[in-house]
């Protein structure tokens, strides 16, 4: 005769089963939000909103589709495009582009902003590194808006498995296999290629069909990586980048210019410069949340940019930027990007008087650097 | 993609098997703490079966 199970254990088993179901439902609510597009509230100055699939229909309803915001001053002039979110975990690139969409007005020319170039990369995070799924911003009136934190590359759900070696389609350049999901190694793209190659192909089509004169791609870099607080420029527009950097230095913004290496393929400022008539620049600010020697990787690190490990690393001379107790807050990183965009556009206009381009209300560097990013975002109605 | 479907299908079958074993033991187990541990085994695998594709 078998022994009866104690009732207590069966009740506990039932309770635990219910807890498992409850935890799964609760987990689902935050996990499924990663698949939805972030709420972007365009300013009244945005004259058109398109989708990447309008330029390349095979992307329609796919995770590669993303919004494209066009701000047309109504005055003839140059066309500038700004790319953010090529690498979503490089937060200031996305946020600077978002501020352009939500706040900025032009007096001359046309601005095309793509704040989330790699939408697929916004649909996941780095779970093994405990990076935040969402990053919240205080709007200053008691309200918050949150955006997906994202990761660097295309979500493996959308492209898998990675090959052992990634080969750049046009040149055969060999990189490690995971780079197959890096949008900024896939340009100028391939019509029927990998996920990243198809998105890159669509973005290249945007540049060509919209007759973009100047493309600026916004990024962040590891503090221990030498290409940081810098602009990378294609050789054909080296003068523009150098003059813009000089202007920025006069505003006490420390920035360097490097030429795009001719043998490092697949990046925006290399391939879009080669394959389209556009002048191309890639800008890098510090990325405290992405470097390899960072400490706790939470929302605060991405927003406040303070990290004791980097302070120590800088003291030992292991970083390529100064890193003090004040860190590298998001507002400073975004201010650097906004100033970079404005300086490049101003110099572009000076060098191409037949293509004038100017902003009406771009905040000055000192103002933007002292203002929390959330203050520049629109309040949901 | 066929490789993806095959591997992910196999992962899901394995996950379902682990959930089934953990659930079977959960209802037969006499130790409270072993039942608590079952939660930590079942939750991620249920999550994986239902959400991660």
Polypeptide structure, described:
The complex is a heterodimer of chains A (381) and B (53). Chain A has 381 residues and is of the alpha/beta class. Chain A contains nine helices and 14 strands. Chain A has helices at 7-33, 91-103, 195-209, 238-250, 268-275, 299-304, 308-315, 330-351, 365-369; strands at residues 48-51, 67-72, 79-83, 106-108, 110-114, 134-138, 144-148, 165-167, 174-176, 214-221, 230-233, 256-259, 279-286, 358-359. Chain A has an eight-stranded mixed sheet with strand order 1-2-5-3-10-13-11-12, sandwiched between helices. Chain A has a two-stranded antiparallel sheet with strand order 4-14. A two-stranded antiparallel ribbon of chain A has the order 6-7. In chain A, strand 8 (165-167) and strand 9 form a beta hairpin. The mean pLDDT of chain A is 95. Chain B is mainly α and 53 residues long. Helices cover 89% and strands 0% of the residues of chain B. Chain B has two helices and no strands. Chain B has helices spanning 2-28, 32-51. In chain B, helix 1 (2-28) runs antiparallel to helix 2. Chain B is elongated, with a radius of gyration of 13 Å. Classes of the chains: A alpha/beta (381), B mainly alpha (53). At the A-B interface, helix 1 of A face helix 1 and helix 2 of B.
Short recap of the structure:
With about 375 residues, chain A is α/β, with parallel strands linked by helices. Chain A has helices spanning about 5-35, 90-105, 195-210, 240-250, 270-275, 300-305, 310-315, 330-350, 365-370, and strands at about 50, 65-70, 80-85, 105-110, 110-115, 135-140, 145-150, 165, 175, 215-220, 230-235, 255-260, 280-285, 360. The chains are: A alpha/beta (about 375), B mainly alpha (about 55).
């Amino acid at each position: 005769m078998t022994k009866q199970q104690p009732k207590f254990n069966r009740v506990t088993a039932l309770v635990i089963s219910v807890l498992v179901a409850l935890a799964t439902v609760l987990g689902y609510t935050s996990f499924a939000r990663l698949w939805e597009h972030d709420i972007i509230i365009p300013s009244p100055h945005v004259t058109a909103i398109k989708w990447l699939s309008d330029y390349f229909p095979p992307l329609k309803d796919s995770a590669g589709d993303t919004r494209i915001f066009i701000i047309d001053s109504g005055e003839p002039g140059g066309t500038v495009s700004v790319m953010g979110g090529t690498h979503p975990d490089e937060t200031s690139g996305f946020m600077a582009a978002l501020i352009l969409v939500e706040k900025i007005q032009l007096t001359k020319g046309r601005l095309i902003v793509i704040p989330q170039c790699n939408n697929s990369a916004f649909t996941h995070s780095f779970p093994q590194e405990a990076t935040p799924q969402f990053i919240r911003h205080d709007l200053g009136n008691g309200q918050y808006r949150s955006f997906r934190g994202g990761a660097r590359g295309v979500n493996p759900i959308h492209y898998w498995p990675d090959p052992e070696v990634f080969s750049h389609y046009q040149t055969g350049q060999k990189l490690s296999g995971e780079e197959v999901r890096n949008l900024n190694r896939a340009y100028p793209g391939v019509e029927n290629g990998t996920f990243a190659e198809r998105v890159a192909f669509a973005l290249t089509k945007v540049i060509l069909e919209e007759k973009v004169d100047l493309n600026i791609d916004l990024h962040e870099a590891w503090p221990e990586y030498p290409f940081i607080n810098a602009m990378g420029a294609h050789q054909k527009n080296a003068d523009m980048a150098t003059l813009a950097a000089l202007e920025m230095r006069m505003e006490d913004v420390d920035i360097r210019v490097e030429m795009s290496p001719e043998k490092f393929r697949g990046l925006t400022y290399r391939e879009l410069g080669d394959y389209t008539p556009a002048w191309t620049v890639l800008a890098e600010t510090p990325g405290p949340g992405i470097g390899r020697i960072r400490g706790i990787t939470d929302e605060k690190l991405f927003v406040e940019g303070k990290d004791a490990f980097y302070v120590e690393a800088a003291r030992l001379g292991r970083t390529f930027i100064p890193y003090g107790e004040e860190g590298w807050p998001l507002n400073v990183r975004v201010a650097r990007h906004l100033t970079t965009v404005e300086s490049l556009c101003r110099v572009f206009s000076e060098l191409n008087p037949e293509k004038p381009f100017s902003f009406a209300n771009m905040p000055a560097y000192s103002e933007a650097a002292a203002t929390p990013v959330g203050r520049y975002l629109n309040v949901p109605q | 993609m066929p490789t993806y479907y095959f591997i992910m299908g196999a992962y899901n079958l394995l996950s379902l098997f682990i959930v089934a074993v953990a659930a079977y033991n959960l209802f037969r187990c006499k130790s409270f703490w072993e039942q608590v541990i079952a939660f930590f085994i079942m939750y991620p695998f249920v999550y994986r079966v239902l959400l991660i594709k």
